[in-house]
Amino acid sequence: MRRNKVASVVLPPILIIIALVFFLPVFLTIINAFKSMEEMTRPFYSFPRHLAFENFTQVVKTTHMVNAFITSVLVVSLSMVGIVLFTSMASYAIVRHKSVFNQVIYIAFISGLMIPFSVIMIPLMKVVGVLKIGSMGGLIIIYIALGMSLPVFLLTGFIKGSVPLELEESAHIDGAGNFRIFIFIVLPLLKPIIATVIMLGTVWIFNDFLLPSLLLTSKRFTIPLSQYQLSGQYLQWWNLMLAGFTLTLLPIIVLFLSFQKYFIKGVTEGALKG
Length: 274
Hints:
The chain is mainly α.
């Protein structure tokens, strides 16, 4: 009882400090996005003397952000459709059809969490060159392949702990096949964990710089690549870069606000009930 009282007194200030530490870079980015180029010589933590809204219109025109945003949305959407579709079916098969082969497949999926991308980057680029799957199509395929490990881990745990087997058995008795049971019974119950997978995957793909820089041509570029155009050899437009970063934050914030009610539930049940 005494420990609970101490925790209730000590934990809130600690959590507030941690939250402020994480929010500080975002706050500094936003206030500096409204500074003119001349004001960027002032301390980074200082507030702008006047709000330079023209930074946002200029960065949109200079970096062709609209085209970059459309490309990013296409890459994220198609990648997440593939990740959700393949990992949900694979996780359901692994959980409901237990065998040595399925366990080996599960271990192969999970092992992807332990292998750094830098280890497989050069062999992966060689495979891309041999198969000639560069540009946006190859980028989507690679995102789907690299993005399956964590969703499989979360989905298998969620199915084990939160999808009653009795519902599927009742559907089998009524004559429903495995595919119909998965689509109409299991998939709707996976909504919280699928929302979590979409949230985590979208943030990763939308903000990724390395893979698009390796695969996309100069005619197509994502949001991170578009911001890189503002960094030159002799001059860096920090005010425009920060304005671009601020605009880039908006889709992620909207996505999080839309999925936040599923996020914690999906993570805890998917990770802890396996």
